[in-house]
Amino acid sequence: MAAHAPASASGFDPELLRRYDRPGPRYTSYPTAPQFRTDFPLESLRARALESNAQLPARALSLYVHIPFCASPCFYCGCNRIITRDLVRGEHYVEQLLAELNLVAPWFEAGRPVTQLHLGGGTPNFLSPRALERLIRGIGARLATSSADTRDFSVELDPRFVTEEHLAVLGALGFNRASLGVQDFAPEVQQAIHRTQSIEQTLAAIESCRRYGLRSVNVDLIYGLPRQRPEGFARTLEALRAARPERFAIYGYAHLPQNFKAQRRIRAGELPDAAARLALLALAIETLTARGYAHIGLDHFALPEDELAVALRRGTLQRNFMGYTTHADCDLLALGVSAISHIGSCFSQSLRELPAWERALAAHRVPLWRGLELDADDLLRAELIQQVMCRGAIDVRAFEERFGIEFEAYFASSLPRLAALEADGLLVRDARQLRATPAGRFLLRNIAMCFDRYLEAAPEAAAPKRYSQAL
User: Which of 226, 392, 430, 450 has the smallest set of CB atoms within 10 Å of its CB?
Assistant: First the structure.
């Protein structure tokens, strides 16, 4: 099925969207992480890896490595991170990551190429250039890292702490994409979130990335932060005009102080209300689409020639724990504290706390915390939700043929939940297809939620504590 055109700013109806702005999963996986079970056996994970080798011995691997350390706390952050300025901890952590890889690398055929590698955090450039080089060369000694031009080797960078030496090493190691955190340049917002970052150092970091061969640069912005105003956010967008990053991610701030201790430093009274949040999002959408960026989905934008925009047009866009991607049709192996793997038909997550993770490795045990073996219904719904999130549409007839079902009968309990979306013009549905309208593409999470059988069983009261707002 051909991909549908990306949404334009003309589809943004604040009053309508506000009615649907409720908590829900981001669907970087289905089932989502709250469904993972602590009694998930390690043998199931190993079995799925060996099974994948047998079925698709040349299938590519995607590797995610979580670096939890940060030199300074950002109050908005909901990531699993550790605040420290002790660089020796980073050196030690690299050795532990390689020890973890020693335990799981034998599960995979030696010839399976790592075509996607992502360093996330935390702050990956907390590691010294020497430690980064040790890590990547260590991975290459244990797995077949790709040298093809089509590889996607990416890293999250904090412009406040990245150095020329960091970027020189990353470029020499084959990294070709970087994601830089900005959030907002407005001084009053930076003060409220405890992240002071100048325009000059950010633009210099973008320029240096390109100079050392990181050809695609993504910039992360956040709307809904304390003290944030449209005029300040507009200046942030304007300040980035000359750099013209290949991608933007415009995330909505999720204020969940009951889950994230650092967020308790943010004053709830300084947060913009729902109408103001939507105004900030509308401003970003209008500004970026006017400058030629394609709206990929949810909160992602890319220049037309960027790989994400090309994948959207071709209908090959994918979504996984790293967000929108062109390489998600791989087994995903994740290393580090709290990292989540997706191998074959199972998900698994490593221990979240560093001391427990370290103890497991010291005992030569895979640091497994929890996971889930997907049943036939999970796999079917996962594919449907993937199509909703990446294409904004479902080809009903093709879906029926692939899974051997009668769509209306199989989803008899799900389809009535689409009625309100359809009545409000957010969704078009007939016997052949289900398709989000331009306005509906801002609410892909809401459409996907209609098919989530775990949400049907979960009490609605639990959602605000577990998930961020849809917008």
Answer: 430
